Task: inverse folding
């Protein structure tokens, strides 16, 4: 009954759009966004919805005056299982896997090729996706980092992935770049995402509470973050579990080893 009521309310809203209290925001097309120097600080809601496109057809879009076709590549560590596109979409590839049958034996089960659902983390504003290994281990990944790691060379081993226009949901490869932490913060000030005279960025005052941390995976690969808070934000996970690992209360956090730099 509750479902029916909700459905009726949605129909009423669609039939009476004037009665809906719509905020003064606007949603731009990708082409309109590309023509804007920066949309941060304007009274517009700028959302890129490529992650909501579940069609298997490649996206063809005009970017900066050039017609660009979506490109797909394997995600490192998930070869032949998942791919990431140059537009920030995640695809699960066709494969045959073993699944337990009620009779007690394993049976071959085909998994269809499909676009995996990504979602926006309400705390960070970044698009993320959950990937599963062949052994069933699940982990959250930030889509903009997957795109950068797959498509953008990083010869200087910079640790941050920056959204050039400040739109966290715009994960097209042409709108991302590798940055140092300093470059990322300066870019935030320049386009209005952060204010130099607020928080830990007050002029002449450096935060003494932030300590760089190092994340190490099971293969010994290390990633440096400016703080545990930053690591949690980038990964889309809770900060407290990382802190417990740093304090020695737990051995790992989210299947990674953590230590202060």
Result:
């Amino acid at each position: 009954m509750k479902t029916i009521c909700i459905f009726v309310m949605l129909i009423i809203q669609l039939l009476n759009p004037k009665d809906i209290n719509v905020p003064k925001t606007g949603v731009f097309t990708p082409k309109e966004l590309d023509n804007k120097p920066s949309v941060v600080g304007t009274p517009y809601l700028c959302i890129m919805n490529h992650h909501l496109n579940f069609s298997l057809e490649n996206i063809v879009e005009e970017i900066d005056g050039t017609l660009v076709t979506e490109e797909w590549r394997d995600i490192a560590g998930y070869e032949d299982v998942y791919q990431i596109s140059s537009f920030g979409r995640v695809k699960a590839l066709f494969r045959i896997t073993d699944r337990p049958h009620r009779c007690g034996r394993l049976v071959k089960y085909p998994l269809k090729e499909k676009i995996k659902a990504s979602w926006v983390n309400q705390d960070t504003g970044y698009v993320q996706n959950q990937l599963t290994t062949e052994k069933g281990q699940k982990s959250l990944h930030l889509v903009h980092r997957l795109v950068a790691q797959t498509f953008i060379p990083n010869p200087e081993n910079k640790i941050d992935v920056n959204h050039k226009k400040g739109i966290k949901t715009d994960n097209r490869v042409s709108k991302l770049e590798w940055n140092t932490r300093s470059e990322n913060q300066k870019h935030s000030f320049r386009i209005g995402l952060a204010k130099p005279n607020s928080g830990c960025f007050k002029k002449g005052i450096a935060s003494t509470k932030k300590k760089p941390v190092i994340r190490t995976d099971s293969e010994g690969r290390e990633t440096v973050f400016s703080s545990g808070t930053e690591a949690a934000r980038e990964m889309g996970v809770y900060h407290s579990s990382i802190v417990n690992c740093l304090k020695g209360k737990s051995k790992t956090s989210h299947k990674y080893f953590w230590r202060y730099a």
User: Anything to note?
Assistant: Helices lie at 2-15, 30-34, 143-151, 181-191, 228-235, 239-246. The longest helix spans residues 2-15. Residues 100 and 106 are 4 Å apart (CA to CA). The chain has two domains: 24-183, 207-261.
